[in-house]
């Protein structure tokens, strides 16, 4: 044993000596570090080099992306109260390939400087494209305060993410408001995206995640502390998760601390994935979708959800609080679990024989296969008098409803910690 170790040590010494000798003969490349460059866009700039407020590019289509490198940043002028831009932001960013998940390397932010820290609005007026198009790089985009960056009125999408599958594609989007865009508020085609602390409303589909392209890595979506709704009842969905995202044993989408509704046709549509638990849903409040609050056709893990529905929808038709697509229920690759949640009203549309793990759920005024959720009906006793809400209750009244549990509630310790729109908005 000692002879063997001596031979190994001798070989290591010879190898190290050879490497040192080689370094003396070969000049290794040295890359000079360049400090980050700060760029600016402002309607008041002279559109020259973009390196100060005075020389800022004056529209989104004037930004010279080709001269930017990883770790540079772009600051958007929001004016004293607001500033409106009318061309799309098409960010053609360089790659910086790294192994860290959700590490961004290019910041695009609305200014926090006095006189420039109003709302920046990228206004489409129906132009047939997206307000923000992201196809490369790993950007962090932030309005820096609630609705600090508004993308509104585009003929396609508020934000379009595509082609990101050709690289790591780690995107973080924060403090945005995506509204009144014809196809979607955000359309994600591949990549890894986190959207947080944002308002998404009154779009064709508010959040739409499509299938991967054949050569892409698994899609990942994270939605955190977002309010997803319509300002009136309309045929527009909240979150629509397409097929074939995620990977085995890895959720394709996590939804956390969101309010989903009111005014939506479907709150959350989970159309399936290659993962046995494709959707991980926790600590969310669903308010009165006209068709389905939660619908899944793939692996699903959920806890601490509060779902409210009136007796019927505004057309006096039944609507589902929880739905599992019947032809998926026996798929051995799918796993369903639902724990510590509250369901008030709506139909439980789950076929008999579906294997689903449930624990500590409360339900009241539900119909259908209610045995899936629990054995009994118990009023959770919300603070708002929801029993008085009629089928045609205005969306505005639902927005102001309080679904916090009273001190006498038998469901205390379960359901979502997010109990109203007002409470969520105080968080960002």
Explain what this protein looks like in three dimensions:
By secondary structure, this protein is mainly beta. The chain has one domain (98-106, 121-425): Single-stranded right-handed beta-helix, Pectin lyase-like (Pectate Lyase C-like, 3 Solenoid), CATH 2.160.20. It has three helices and 32 strands. It has helices spanning 2-25, 395-399, 421-425; strands spanning 38-41, 73-76, 82-85, 89-91, 106-110, 119-123, 132-134, 139-142, 149-152, 157-161, 170-174, 176-179, 184-188, 192-196, 199-201, 205-209, 220-224, 227-229, 239-241, 253-256, 259-260, 266-270, 279-282, 285-287, 292-296, 300-303, 306-308, 320-324, 336-339, 342-349, 357-359, 362-368. It has a 20-stranded parallel β-sheet that branches. Mean pLDDT is 86; it is low at 17-23, 25-31, 98-102 and 245-249.
Mean pLDDT across every amino acid position: 86
CATH topology: Pectate Lyase C-like
Question: How many separate domains?
Answer: 1
Low-confidence stretches: 17-23, 25-31, 98-102, 245-249
* Cα gyration radius (Å): 25 Å
Number of strands: 32
Distance between the termini: 64 Å
**Superfamily (CATH H level) name:** Single-stranded right-handed beta-helix, Pectin lyase-like
Approximate helicity band: under 10%
For the largest beta-sheet, the strand count, sense and barrel status come to: 20 strands, parallel
Which CATH architecture?
3 Solenoid
Put the structure in a nutshell:
About 10% of the residues lie in helices and about 30% in strands.
Write the layout of secondary structure elements.
Layout lengths: L1 H24 L12 E4 L31 E4 L5 E4 L3 E3 L14 E5 L8 E5 L8 E3 L4 E4 L6 E4 L4 E5 L8 E5 L1 E4 L4 E5 L3 E5 L2 E3 L3 E5 L10 E5 L2 E3 L9 E3 L11 E4 L2 E2 L5 E5 L8 E4 L2 E3 L4 E5 L3 E4 L2 E3 L11 E5 L11 E4 L2 E8 L7 E3 L2 E7 L26 H5 L21 H5 L3
Parallel strand pairs: 1-2, 2-5, 3-6, 4-7, 5-8, 6-9, 7-10, 8-11, 9-12, 10-13, 11-14, 12-15, 13-16, 14-17, 15-18, 16-19, 17-20, 18-21, 19-22, 20-23, 21-24, 22-25, 23-26, 24-27, 25-28, 26-29, 27-30, 28-30, 29-31, 30-32
């Amino acid at each position: 044993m000692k002879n063997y170790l001596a031979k190994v040590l001798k070989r290591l010494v010879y190898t190290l000596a050879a490497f040192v000798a080689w370094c003396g003969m070969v000049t290794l490349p040295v890359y000079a570090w360049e400090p980050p460059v700060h760029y600016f866009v402002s309607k008041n700039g002279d559109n020259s080099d973009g390196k100060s407020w005075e020389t800022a590019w004056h529209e989104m289509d004037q930004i010279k992306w080709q001269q930017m490198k990883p770790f540079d940043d772009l600051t958007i002028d929001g004016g004293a109260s607001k500033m409106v831009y009318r061309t799309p932001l098409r960010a053609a960013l360089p790659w910086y390939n790294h192994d860290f998940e959700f590490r961004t390397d290019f910041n695009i932010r609305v200014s926090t400087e006095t006189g420039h820290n109003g709302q920046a609005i990228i206004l489409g007026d129906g132009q047939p494209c997206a307000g923000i198009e992201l196809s490369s790089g790993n950007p962090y985009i932030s309005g820096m305060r609630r609705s600090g960056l508004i993308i509104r009125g585009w003929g396609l999408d508020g934000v379009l993410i595509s082609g990101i599958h050709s690289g790591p594609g780690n995107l973080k989007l924060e403090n945005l408001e995506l509204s009144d865009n014809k196809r979607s508020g955000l359309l994600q085609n591949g990549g890894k995206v986190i959207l947080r602390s944002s308002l998404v409303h009154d779009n064709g589909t508010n959040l739409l995640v499509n299938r991967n392209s054949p050569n892409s890595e698994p899609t990942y979506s994270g939605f955190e502390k977002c309010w997803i709704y319509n300002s009136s009842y309309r045929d527009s969905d909240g979150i629509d998760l397409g097929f074939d995202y995620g990977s085995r044993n890895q959720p394709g989408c996590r939804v956390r601390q969101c309010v989903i509704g009111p005014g939506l046709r479907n709150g959350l549509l989970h159309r399936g994935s290659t993962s046995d638990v494709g959707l991980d849903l926790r600590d969310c409040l669903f308010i009165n979708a006209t068709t389905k609050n939660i619908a899944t056709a793939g692996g699903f893990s959920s806890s601490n959800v509060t779902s409210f529905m009136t007796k019927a929808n505004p057309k006096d038709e039944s609507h589902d609080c929880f739905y599992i697509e019947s032809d998926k229920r026996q798929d051995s690759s799918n796993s369903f679990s639902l724990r510590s949640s509250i369901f008030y009203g709506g139909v439980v549309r789950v076929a008999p024989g579906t294997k689903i793990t449930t624990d500590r759920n409360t339900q009241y005024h539900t119909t259908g296969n209610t045995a899936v959720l629990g054995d009994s009906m118990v009023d959770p006793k919300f603070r708002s008098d929801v029993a008085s809400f009629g089928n045609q209750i205005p969306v505005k009244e639902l927005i102001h409803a309080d679904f916090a549990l009273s001190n006498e509630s038998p469901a205390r310790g379960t359901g979502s910690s997010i109990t109203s729109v007002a409470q969520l908005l105080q968080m960002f």
